[in-house]
């Protein structure tokens, strides 16, 4: 018995046109299965955006893909924007925010919102940030947006609506005071953070050498100072960024001017106090350095920070009993002036942006030891912020 005779009678009675239609359907179904398999394989690839300075070759915001083997593939320019130095993404992953680290004649910087459309960004809106040279942006699940204005010495409050449109400026928290260093003769707000779901806000001021604590009044859309509302850092430290430990008891602040990381302890009454500080540099290094960024692995075991000058990533093991740091390694960033860096969503890789050598470098991360191994690098114009 041949193969055709095994087919059901209703198929044997089909016309040639019906046979063609059946064949087309089978091909499409097979193709769908293949595409689903390819999509499943691609799920280990992660796209990310890069904020830049546009004073040279860069034209704005770029997109890349971190492949599952740690190599980086360029997508290209996704939005033209002037000095989009720091980026943030809405909680629903539909919108991207970028501060424009510039000032107009009125010395007020701007922030832009974009819709995320596959491999492009579509401009939605622009608003003022409340001060000169905005260098940081943050957004929470409710759409409240915080900006840190470095030269303005203040932080701004806005809100992103469900359509991706930014509100006008809602409020400003103006800082005052100074520290002891040359760059601490006036306020310089460098970053601002949502601490928890109850809208607590921590702003970091390099100039006043303090952390500022406030809370959002979501009825009035205003900053409300907490008591106490400031915490003084070590003299001349120059705080820049922070990282929250997953236990919600410890905060680690990276200090730009004295190359240290300070442990901040949170008491049961939600008050804060200074803990120990740790150098980000090898003991033998004596040249200029300015730490930039800091991150903690989601298991709370390891802390990473970038050194501009020493051009390294420093790795610490976190003591889970008291939060103290034990130095593990210093790893070259394979470039100069590492700014921000980011752990991949699965934390198998760490990517760092080297601004002065125009490259992004990928490291494989050992989750058990916390150590890093160089994998790949790719050209990127004046990269300063990496956002997955």
The N- and C-terminal alpha carbons lie at a distance of 60 Å
Give the integer mean of the pLDDT values.
91
Q: Give me the CATH superfamily of the domain at 81-232.
A: YVTN repeat-like/Quinoprotein amine dehydrogenase
Strand segment tally: 28
In the sheet with the most strands, the strands line up as 3-2-1-28
- Which percent range describes the beta-strand content? over 45%
Element string (H = helix, E = strand):
HHEEEEEEEEEEEEEEEEEEEEEEEEEEEE
Helix/strand class: mainly beta
CATH architecture of the domain at 81-232: 7 Propeller
Instruction: Classify the fold: give the CATH topology of the domain at 81-232.
Output: Methylamine Dehydrogenase, Chain H
- How would you name the oligomeric state of the polypeptide chains in this document? single chain
Q: Sheet bearing the most strands, described? A: 4 strands, antiparallel
Short overview:
This protein has 388 residues and is mainly β. It is built from 2 helices and 28 strands. The protein has helices at 9-12, 16-42; strands at residues 46-52, 60-66, 72-80, 84-89, 95-100, 110-117, 120-128, 134-139, 144-149, 154-159, 171-174, 189-194, 200-205, 210-217, 222-232, 239-244, 250-255, 260-266, 272-279, 290-296, 302-308, 312-318, 325-332, 338-343, 349-354, 359-365, 372-379, 383-387.
Report on the structure:
There is one protein chain. This protein has 388 residues and is mainly β. The protein has a domain at 81-232: YVTN repeat-like/Quinoprotein amine dehydrogenase (Methylamine Dehydrogenase, Chain H, 7 Propeller), CATH 2.130.10.10. It is 8% helix and 50% strand. It is built from two helices and 28 strands. It has helices at 9-12, 16-42, and strands spanning 46-52, 60-66, 72-80, 84-89, 95-100, 110-117, 120-128, 134-139, 144-149, 154-159, 171-174, 189-194, 200-205, 210-217, 222-232, 239-244, 250-255, 260-266, 272-279, 290-296, 302-308, 312-318, 325-332, 338-343, 349-354, 359-365, 372-379, 383-387. The strands form seven sheets. Strands 3-2-1-28 form a four-stranded antiparallel β-sheet, with no helix packed on it. Strands 4-5-6-7 form a four-stranded antiparallel β-sheet, with no helix packed on it. Strand 22 (312-318) and strand 23 (325-332) form a beta hairpin. It is globular and about 50 Å long.
């Amino acid at each position: 018995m041949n193969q055709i005779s095994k087919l059901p009678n209703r198929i044997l009675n089909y016309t040639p046109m019906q046979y063609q239609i059946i064949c087309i359907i089978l091909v499409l179904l097979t193709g769908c299965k293949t595409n689903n398999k390819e999509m499943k394989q691609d799920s280990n690839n992660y796209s990310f955006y890069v904020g830049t300075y546009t004073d040279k070759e860069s034209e704005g915001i770029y997109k890349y893909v971190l492949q599952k083997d740690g190599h980086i593939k360029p997508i290209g320019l996704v939005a033209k924007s002037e000095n989009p130095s720091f980026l943030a993404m809405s909680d629903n992953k539909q919108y991207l925010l970028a501060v424009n680290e510039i000032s107009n004649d009125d010395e007020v910087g701007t922030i832009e919102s974009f819709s995320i459309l596959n491999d492009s960004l579509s401009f939605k809106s622009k608003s003022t940030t409340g001060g000169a040279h905005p260098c940081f942006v943050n957004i929470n699940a409710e759409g409240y947006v915080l900006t840190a204005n470095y030269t303005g010495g203040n932080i701004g409050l806005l809100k992103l609506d469900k359509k991706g449109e930014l509100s006008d400026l809602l409020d400003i928290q103006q800082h005052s005071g100074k520290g002891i260093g040359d760059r601490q003769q006036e306020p310089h707000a460098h970053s601002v953070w949502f601490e928890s779901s109850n809208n607590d806000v921590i702003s970091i001021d390099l100039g006043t050498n303090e952390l500022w604590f406030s809370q959002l009044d979501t009825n009035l859309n205003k900053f409300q100072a907490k008591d106490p509302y400031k915490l003084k850092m070590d003299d001349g430290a120059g705080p820049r960024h922070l990282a929250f430990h997953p236990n919600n008891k410890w905060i680690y602040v990276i200090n730009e001017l004295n190359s240290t990381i300070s442990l901040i302890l949170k008491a049961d009454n939600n008050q804060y106090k200074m803990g120990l500080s740790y150098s980000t540099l090898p003991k033998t290094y004596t040249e200029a350095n300015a730490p930039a960024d800091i991150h903690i692995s989601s298991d709370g075991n390891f802390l990473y920070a970038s050194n501009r000058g020493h051009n390294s990533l420093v790795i610490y093991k976190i003591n889970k009993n008291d939060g103290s740091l034990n130095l593990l390694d210093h790893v070259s960033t394979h470039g100069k002036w590492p700014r921000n860096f980011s752990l991949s969503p699965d934390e198998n890789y760490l990517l760092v942006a080297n601004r002065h050598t125009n490259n992004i470098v990928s490291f494989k991360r050992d989750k058990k030891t916390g150590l890093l191994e160089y994998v790949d690098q790719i050209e990127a114009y004046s990269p300063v912020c990496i956002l997955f």
